[in-house]
Structures are given as structure tokens and as C-alpha cells.
Amino acid sequence: MTTITLVTGASRGLGRNTALHIARRGGDVVVTYHSRSDEADSIVAEIRALGHKAVALQLDTGKVAGFGDFANRLRNVLREEWQRDTFDHLVNNAGHGDYALFADTTEQQFDRLVDVHLKGVFFLTQTLLPLLADGGQIVNLSSGLTRMTLPGYAAYSAMKGAVEVLTRYLAKELGSRGITVNTVAPGAIETDFGGGTVRDNPAVNQHIAGITALGRVGLPDDIGPMIASLLSADNRWVTAQRIEVSGGQGI
Questions:
Q1: Between the N and C ends of the chain, which has fewer C-beta atoms within 10 Å?
Q2: Is 120 helix (H, G, I), strand (E, B) or coil?
């Protein structure tokens, strides 16, 4: 049976790459987007061109109040497109970067990071549990910055550290349903994340390449295939793990 994976924040960056590689491995995908419906429609078209089903749904992962409505829309899509009441995989990818030194971080910046990266992951997963199939898989996106430190990302990294702890608790509590839960922690990647600093600033790019064992900055194609592979049945005995995908950055 074809699997159905829900990838949040899949209209661009790592989410988009992950959705595409899931389809290349034979899976169907539900992608969510925050505001760029045109980009979401584009990835849906790419997946359908590969011969697989895909649907885009709008979702603001920073607004818990909207999660119930999202679950209802997802339930309807599952029934209409797949004649199913459940989906198989949840990839909690949606997020944003917000650079600010600790002394300069505002409460508004902090609260938005909490809403998207912690409350969003916690309560969206909770809301979708009735729709997640037994034996399913959850992947939460973290960051190499929970192991390495880089001034300006204290609040962001603190949220990702909390997600890593949450992952272990979810693995324990959902294990009775055969659901695995893991964290994937990318290193620095060339995307538009955080304003595209790693991708567009040659000095930053060169510095990171110099402290990475494999000698370059990561690309989306280094992450999406890994997540797609983790979601395969071959990894059904892997749970409660933090898997860093950084090319050996900062070792």
C-alpha cells in the first residue's frame, strides 16, 4: 500500500526537498504552506508528474487555534483522495530563523519561536494523533545548533533542544501504537532559511565549509533523501534518536 506523508512547511527549502524525495521513493504526500500557495502548487505539480498523489493545505503552525480546522480539512482530503481515514508519516518541518544576540532578543521574537517551533510541533502532533496510523512514523526537525553554539541563535536553538526532548517522550508514549519518533538535525544548509545567509554570504559559506569534515556546506539534497530513507520500513526499529546530518560540521 502506498504511504501518505504529511510534510509541514513543504512549499520551499528542506520541506520541499523532503516531499519530492518521498515521492521519488514511491510515496504520496500532503504538503502544507503558510502563505505561498503558488510555491505549494508547484511542488504538488512536480509530485504528480512523478505519478504520485499530492495535495497542498494551508496551515500556520504558529496558531494552535487553527489546528482543529486543519485536522478536519486533512480528514476530508484523506477520504476524498485516498479513501482512507489515516496517514502514515508526519514530518514536523515548518519553521523560521530569527537571528538576535541573547541580550537583544525581544519577547516578541521569543514568543514567535515558541509558537512555531515548540507549541506548534507539540499541539499539531497531538491534534493529528487520531489520524496517524498505528505503526506510523514521526520526524521532528531540529538543528545542529543544539550541539554547536553560534551567537545569535540562543532562542532558536533552545526551542530545537526542547523538540529533541519532546521527541524522546513521544517515542516512549506512542511506542504502544508502534509509532516511531525521531529527530533529524541538519547542519548549515544552503537555503533561504534565515534570509539565505549561509547560501548568499560567501564569507559565512566559506567559514562553515572550513569547519566541516566533508569540506562544504550542506545542500537540500543532503537532507531530503535522508528523511525519506528514515521513513522507510527498513528503519522501523529506529526510534527516540537524534540523527545529525551535517557532514561533520564542528567536530
A1: N
A2: helix
- Whether 10 has a pLDDT exceeding 70, the answer reads yes
Q: Is residue 200 predicted with pLDDT exceeding 80? A: no
User: Quick one: CA dihedral 174, 97, 231, 32, positive or negative?
Assistant: positive
| Cα–Cα dist 57/122, whole Å | 19
Long-range contacts of 175-180 (CB under 8 A, 24+ apart): 175/239, 177/134, 177/135, 177/136, 178/134, 178/135, 178/136, 179/132, 179/134, 179/135, 179/136, 179/137, 179/138, 180/136, 180/137, 180/138, 180/235, 180/236, 180/238, 180/239
Active-site hit among 33, 99, 156, 169: 156
Cβ-proximal residues to 240 (8 Å cutoff; 6+ apart), any chain: 167, 168, 171, 172, 181, 182
Question: Distance (Å, rounded) from C-alpha 213 to C-alpha 118?
Answer: 30
For residues 120-141, give the mean pLDDT: 98
State the Cα–Cα distance between residues 85 and 73, nearest whole angstrom: 12
Residue 194 has pLDDT above 70, yes or no: no
- CA dist 151 and 147 (Å) reads 13
Q: Which residue has the cell 531540529?
A: 142
The answer to whether 56 and 44 are in contact (CB under 8 A) is yes
Amino acid at 112: R
The dihedral over CA atoms of 15, 96, 90, 171, expressed in degrees to the nearest 10, equals 130
pLDDT band with cut points at 50, 70 and 90 for residue 193: confident
| 156 has catalytic annotation | yes
Rounded to whole angstroms, how far apart are CA atoms 174 and 5? Answer: 18
- Closest of 64, 49, 3 to residue 29, by C-alpha: 3
